[in-house]
Design a protein that fits this description.
The structure is a single chain. It contains 20 helices and 28 strands. It is of the alpha+beta class and 720 residues long. The chain folds into three domains: 8-197, Aldehyde Oxidoreductase, domain 4 (2-Layer Sandwich), CATH 3.30.365.10; 206-276 and 336-411, Aldehyde oxidase/xanthine dehydrogenase, molybdopterin binding domain (Aldehyde Oxidoreductase, domain 4, 2-Layer Sandwich), CATH 3.30.365.10; 284-327 and 424-449 and 485-719, 2-Layer Sandwich (Aldehyde Oxidoreductase, domain 4), CATH 3.30.365. The strands form seven sheets. A seven-stranded mixed beta sheet has the order 11-12-9-19-16-17-18, sandwiched between helices. The chain has a five-stranded mixed beta sheet with strand order 1-2-3-4-5. The longest helix is centred in the first third of the chain and has 29 residues, at 106-134. Residues 1-20 and 26-46 have low confidence and may be disordered.
């Protein structure tokens, strides 16, 4: 298939979803690295509907969780169609078989080629319909704002008037895509299609769903990881006002009632005895000690270049450092919730989920129903960050609704979300390096961390298959394809002549999941702090040292240089202000950030300004790019200077925003985002803004104090 060719078999004309008109949908094979254990082929994922009244209805097959896909994906279609943006309506796809939303891939991996080609085919067919009606060559016709023009005669027809004749035409074998220089919508600031409904309260989240006969449920979960139910006062709780039933489910005890208040009170009064289970590595302090021991053990080689072991043994000017990062929670504003209605012959789900296909699969397994009998309605998400790619909260609703034969709204409170989520793995990073002739000659990075991919296997297939995760993840080809531990380390963009990247995964009962930027968020901290330490030891400007290891005319070099200029690097703007720099490439996007900080007398860090330079290739909606960079930076600042998840006796200590703190409004720094534009294929933007912020802040702390930061979060005691 040529670059601008779309095979006839890749497209399917279907009847209109919303009435008569021209409807186009396409099928394509896909692979989803984020949920890599699933493998499905040829699934429908997008539809265009052009109605006779000239409306264009675009069905988006990605979950909208604040990242702007309800705008950016339709923009690609509208651009190629030359459609009137004001006449475009967005709906959530009703097809549940589409791939998950995550990994910053909605545009880069999913939409960039497919959506443009879908729009180009729709345009082609509408032009052909008009040319046949006028009996002229399609080459004499042009399109603008939902109108097809015949340039010589000035005749014109609306898209809506052409739908009937266009729907009878054959799908073209080839289609020409626009040259980016001709874009009039893509690459320009565009107001989001979901903003108005989210502003006036009409936007629909799963918490807004209410159906006839619906009951409410909350779950009391095990007191420690792996603990099992022994007994409870459930008969007493059943007698409380407003309580319908108390239901035992695989991961807890569910209280079901007529309203949320009754359920909240009953859950509080529910007393459950759990079995005692506390493996040695389920305590934060012991856990850290255990990882320290693993550093000394043989590890898996993720990448090797040159002769790193030989240079390391020679021991000439070798510098060593160790960095550690904690467990972190997702802390989305919207805790998990859903509505589930299981009937004898069908099941319907309303949920804000990043992975509806997985929800269908699990619903079929739990209920015994054929997948064709299960429907999922994906609502807006109040934040996901990888947490809502796991559907454990939907599982709970399925178990309850199936047992009671009643539609059930399952609600997690903030404490549930904090204490029973899937956490970013903790990790330890051991680095060795040396500088020769003002360039880095040796770079060794050993990573010790539990593997979130292995934990995903456990979640997907359950305890019924003991040892599955260990067995599968021990296979070399699986480790190379599925493990994320080395992401951001083995693919570091600096050109070092001698490199060795190693990983040492291990098992844990602590539930792990994909956190914003996944392992890039951890490896970038170690990488960018260490390169700064090497630069300081040899009295080299840290940005200049980085520039020595990239091609002078590369995209990386431009990002570094622009960040240096825009931040007024090394030119102190105000007294007691200090800068730190970091760069990272992830999800196809280059990001450099300069953090400007100050320290209070009690060593409290205040981030005043962040200069962010991003090259994500072709921009779709610059407004979204700036918003996503700002969002990732805020998310990352909180993880850097606020709190962590700690574990004692197999229990998470933190419970809510008072003891798992996030950045507050009054702590928000000024964030200047500078977008470098080019016509390269687009990368992601939801996650790449996060990895550089932690090392940038840590390096700024060194500039302020002379104290190197090698662990997160940064506490006042670490600075003294």
């Amino acid at each position: 298939m040529t670059k601008n060719e779309f095979s006839r078999r890749d497209f399917l004309k279907v009847g209109s979803l919303l009435g008569s008109g021209l409807a186009i949908g396409f099928y394509l094979p896909f692979g989803n690295k984020l949920m890599g254990i699933q493998k499905v082929s040829f699934e429908p994922n997008a539809f265009i509907n052009v109605s006779p009244d000239d409306r264009i209805i675009i069905s988006v097959a990605k979950a909208e969780m604040g990242q702007g896909v309800w705008t950016s994906l339709p923009m690609l279609i509208a651009e190629e169609m030359d459609a009137d943006w004001s006449k475009i309506k967005i709906i959530q796809s009703s097809d549940s078989s589409f791939i998950g939303t995550g990994g910053s891939g909605s545009i880069s991996r999913y939409g960039w080629k497919k959506m443009r080609k879908a729009g180009a085919i729709a345009r082609y067919m509408l032009v052909e319909a008009a040319s046949l009606k006028w009996k002229v060559s399609p080459l004499e016709c042009d399109v603008k704002q939902n109108l097809v023009y015949h340039k010589p005669s000035g005749r014109r027809q609306s898209f809506g008037s052409l739908t009937k004749s266009a729907s009878k035409l054959k799908i073209p074998k080839k289609v020409q895509l626009k040259n980016p220089k001709d874009y009039t919508l893509v690459g320009f600031d565009t107001l989001r299609k979901d903003s108005f409904s989210k502003s006036n309260g009409t936007a629909q989240y799963s918490m807004d769903i209410n159906i006839d006969g619906m009951v409410f449920a909350m779950v009391k979960r095990p007191s420690s990881f792996g603990a099992e139910y022994i007994s409870s006062n459930l008969e007493e709780i059943k007698k409380q006002p407003g309580i319908i039933d108390v239901v035992l489910i695989p991961r807890g005890v569910a209280v079901v009632g007529e309203n949320t208040w009754s359920v909240i009170k009953a859950k509080k009064n529910l007393k459950v005895e759990w079995s005692k289970k506390n493996p040695i590595n389920n305590d934060s302090e012991v856990y850290s000690t255990y990882m320290e021991k693993l550093i000394l053990e043989k590890a898996d080689v993720a990448k090797k270049k040159g002769k790193p072991k030989k240079i390391s043994k020679e021991g000439n000017n070798i510098f060593k450092a160790k960095y550690s990062l904690p467990f972190q929670a997702h802390a989305a504003m919207e805790p998990c919730n859903c509505v589930v209605n299981v009937k004898n012959d069908s099941c319907e789900i309303w949920a804000g989920t990043q992975n509806p296909k997985n929800a269908i699969d699990r619903a079929s397994k739990i209920t015994g129903l054929d997948k064709k009998k299960i429907k999922i309605n994906v609502t807006f998400l109040g934040g996901g960050f990888g947490r809502k790619s796991f559907n454990d909260f939907i599982d709970e609703g399925l178990y309850i609704s199936q047992k009671l034969k009643m539609p059930t709204k399952i609600i997690w409170d903030r404490e549930d979300d904090t204490k029973h989520g899937f956490y970013r793995p903790s990790s330890i990073h051991y680095l060795e390096g040396s500088i020769k002739d003002e360039s880095i000659n040796l770079w060794k990075h050993k990573i010790v961390s539990p593997d979130a991919a292995a934990q995903q296997m456990v979640y997907q297939y359950g305890a019924s298959l003991p040892g599955l995760a260990r067995g599968i993840m021990s296979l070399d080809f699986v480790k190379k394809k599925m493990s994320f531990i080395a992401e951001g380390a083995k693919n570091i963009k600096y050109n070092f002549p001698n490199m060795l990247i190693e990983t040492k995964p291990f098992e844990t009962d602590v539930p792990l999941g994909f956190w914003r930027a996944v392992y890039d968020s951890q490896n970038s901290f170690a990488n960018e702090c260490f390169i700064d330490e090497l630069a300081y030891r040899d009295r080299i400007d840290p940005i200049d040292l980085r520039l020595k290891h990239v091609e002078s005319n590369s995209r990386i070099a431009k990002v570094l240089k622009v960040a240096k200029k825009k931040s007024a690097w090394a030119k102190k703007s105000k007294p007691n202000r200090y800068q730190g720099f970091a760069y990272h490439h992830s999800f196809g996007t280059h990001v450099a950030e300069v953090a400007e900080i100050s320290l209070s007398r009690s060593n409290k860090i205040r981030v005043h300004r962040v200069t962010c330079v991003v090259d994500c290739g072709q921009t779709v909606n610059p407004m979204t790019i700036r918003a996503q960079m700002q969002s990732a930076i805020v998310f990352g600042i909180g993880a850097t200077i606020k709190d962590e998840i700690t574990i004692k006796n197999g229990r998470v200590n933190q419970s809510n925003y008072h003891d798992y703190r996030v950045l507050r409004f009054n702590e928000m720094p000024k964030v200047d985002v500078h977008i470098i534009k080019n016509n390269q294929a687009p990368g992601g933007v939801g996650e790449p803004g996060l990895p550089p912020i932690a090392p940038a802040i840590a390096n700024a702390v060194f500039s302020a104090t002379g104290k190197r930061i090698r662990k997160l979060p940064i506490l006042a005691s670490d600075i003294i």
